[in-house]
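User: quick one, sequence for these tokens?
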């Protein structure tokens, strides 16, 4: 059970006005997000999830909330029509009917339903979890394929763009503003190997890799499970925007193939479990129905390399830059995360062909070149 979090009086007042959250409400920290602040609010019998949006990371919170509304409304319609079997987050509007409350200090807050009797996992402990997660995120992607993309803005432009992430890393390394590059020399050398993925990425774009509305943060812990291990609800919809299924599949691989979490320093254990990959790929192909084109399906493992590498670069860039982006709990935390992810990237690279051979040949949508 997490400790009670005391809200500053100005914030508590603002939240009372916006949603009638009582002064006796009990707030505790929830989840493992590295960006937003998330609290579980228990107010009498009412339980809700309260989030403060990190406006350094999401500079246009109004756009973010418009997306959020469009996505949750679309998923709710799909669910009601029997086309999407999973639950959806439901925003609780403020007393003015707004999707979020902007408090006098400029902070942005939102409230949504708490999905009771569910839990999250940071790593998968059984291939059945990977199968279930693959199906859940696959169904989510398929459900979003019917959403009018013109209503969804890019909340963080170029979020998973490998070229830009690589360039940002090289700049941080050259600037070395905190004088940390020497400590991290070996990790930086490993990160430079990421240049290997760029030509193939460019070729996929040139060959018409579909741009779709994707989740863009498909970590295992962004899926709620019930007590018997069934996937119930996809959460953390902040980064839903135009992207590629390779990004989503990559994040799933990132958080389910290795037996240890992304910040484990036990690098000897970082690796790829083939039985988990087979289960995940099967689940994703099944869950997404006939959505995947052959180009997408044939590059799912490449997507894992792409995203694991991107996140390794982002952690390392943040370390070199003074830990200004990701929440850390101790000095060197981002460097530890980077080492872990770059070790996973190397394992995926070495095993790419064997893994891709495990992707089931599904009924694929026709190639749309
Ligand atoms: C961040 O806050 P959280 O944990 O949902 C990040 C993701 C990273 C992840 C690494 C907006 O997500 O891209 O994969 O940390 N989100 C943003 O754990 O940068
Ligand atoms: Mg997130």
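Assistant:
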């Amino acid at each position: 059970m997490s400790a009670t979090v005391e809200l500053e009086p100005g914030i508590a007042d603002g939240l009372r006005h916006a949603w009638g959250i009582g002064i006796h409400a009990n707030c505790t920290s929830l989840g493992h997000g590295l960006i937003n602040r998330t609290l579980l609010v228990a107010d009498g019998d009412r339980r809700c999830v309260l989030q403060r949006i990190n406006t350094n990371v999401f500079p246009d919170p109004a756009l973010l909330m418009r997306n959020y509304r469009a996505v949750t409304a679309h998923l709710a319609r799909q669910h009601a029509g029997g086309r999407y079997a999973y639950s959806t987050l439901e925003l609780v509007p403020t007393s003015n009917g707004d999707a979020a409350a902007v408090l006098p200090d400029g902070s942005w807050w939102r409230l949504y339903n708490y999905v009771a009797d569910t839990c999250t996992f940071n790593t998968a402990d059984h291939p059945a979890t990977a199968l279930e997660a693959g199906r859940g995120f696959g169904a989510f992607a398929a459900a979003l394929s019917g959403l009018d993309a013109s209503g969804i803005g890019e909340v963080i432009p170029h979020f998973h763009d490998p070229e830009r992430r690589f360039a940002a890393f090289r700049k941080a390394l050259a600037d070395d503003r905190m004088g940390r590059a020497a400590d991290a020399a070996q990790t930086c050398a490993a990160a430079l190997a990421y240049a290997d993925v760029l030509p193939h990425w460019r070729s996929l774009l040139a060959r018409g890799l579909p741009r779709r509305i994707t989740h863009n943060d498909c970590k295992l812990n962004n899926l709620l499970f019930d007590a018997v291990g069934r996937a119930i609800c996809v959460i953390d919809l902040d980064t839903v925007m135009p992207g590629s299924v390779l990004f989503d599949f990559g994040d799933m691989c990132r958080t389910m193939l290795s037996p240890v979490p992304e910040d484990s320093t036990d690098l000897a254990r970082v690796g790829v479990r083939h039985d988990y990959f087979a289960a995940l790929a099967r689940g994703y192909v099944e869950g997404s129905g006939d959505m995947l084109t052959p180009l997408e399906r044939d590059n799912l493992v490449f997507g894992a390399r792409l995203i694991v590498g991107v996140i390794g670069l982002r952690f390392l860039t943040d370390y070199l830059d003074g830990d200004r982006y990701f929440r850390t709990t101790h000095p060197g935390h981002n460097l530890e995360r980077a080492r872990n992810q770059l070790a996973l990237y190397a394992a995926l690279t070495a095993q790419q062909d064997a893994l891709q051979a495990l992707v089931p040949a599904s009924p694929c949508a026709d190639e749309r070149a």
